[in-house]
Amino acid sequence: MSCPTSNKYSRVIQDDLVGLGLSYDLFTRTSTDNHHRVTQDLFSALHLGTAWLLMAVLFVHIGAAMKHLVVDRDGVFQRMWPWGRTAGSA
After folding, report:
1. Nearest of 84, 9, 53, 32 to residue 61 by alpha carbon
2. Which among 24, 20, 21 has a CA at the least distance from the CA of 10?
3. Average pLDDT, the chain
4. The pTM is what?
5. How far apart are CA 68 and CA 22, in angstroms?
6. Which stretch of DSSP H or E encloses residue 16?
7. Would you say residue 54 lies in a domain?
8. Residue 57 sits in which domain range?
9. Does a structural domain hold residue 82?
10. pLDDT class of 83 with cuts at 50, 70, 90
């Protein structure tokens, strides 16, 4: 659904940009189906990418904590754990 006033201004802007030698395709309106589809695709890809990145960071962090617990046995895991010993106690 489009508004007659926004259509009028859209035509005015389009004519001005074409007069300046610019393509109006670079400045699409946000009420078009194409805009919604492209925006949804973009943010879906960003959401998926950041979700995978967050999971990777989480697993690396858990792996590093397990290394301190099992391999190094240096007390770092116990100091990080809320119910573990404190830094001052040994």
Report:
1. 53
2. 24
3. 81
4. 0.55
5. 60
6. helix 4-19
7. yes
8. 47-90
9. yes
10. confident
Nearest of 59, 87, 61 to residue 75 by alpha carbon: 87
CA dihedral (36, 41, 46, 48) in degrees, to 10, reads: 130
- Backbone φ and ψ of 30, nearest 5°: -85, -5
Backbone angles phi, psi at 72, to 5 degrees: -75, -35
Is 3 a domain residue? no
Written as six digits, the tokens of 34 are: 């194409």
The percent of the chain in helix, strand and coil, each rounded to the nearest 5, is: 70, 0, 30
* 39 within domain boundaries: no
**33 or 86, higher pLDDT:** 33
> Residue 33's CB: how many other CB atoms inside 10 A?
7
Number of domains composing the chain: 1
Closest CA to 69 of 59, 58, 78: 78
58, pLDDT greater than 60: yes
Residue 14 structure tokens: 């389009």
